[in-house]
Amino acid sequence: MARFTVEAANNLIDYNRRRLAQLAGNGATINPLMRRVVCQIELSVRSLERLRNELLSSEERRA
User: Fold this and answer.
1) In tens digits, what is the pLDDT along the chain, a chain of 63 residues?
2) Contact, 52 vs 13, CB < 8 A?
3) How does DSSP assign the chain, residue by residue?
């Protein structure tokens, strides 16, 4: 199984933030379904940030 890297986490975080900006630009928060999509993407960003921070701290402990 491939190891999830800090770089991969950063790429996903960046992608999700770009998507959030696109959705916000389209007025997605008006539609209840799109509001839910935005919420899920925000949760994904927070989760990925935690994972990235855990990966960074484990790399620091090894060094």
Assistant:
1) 357 789 999 999 999 999 999 888 776 667 888 889 899 999 999 999 999 999 999 888 887
2) yes
3) -PPP-HHHHHHHHHHHHHHHHHHHHTTTTSSHHHHHHHHHHHHHHHHHHHHHHHHHHHHHHH-
What pTM value is reported for the model? 0.81
Residue labelled with tokens 């379904």:
33
- Cα separation, 26 vs 48, whole angstroms: 24
Residue type, 21: A
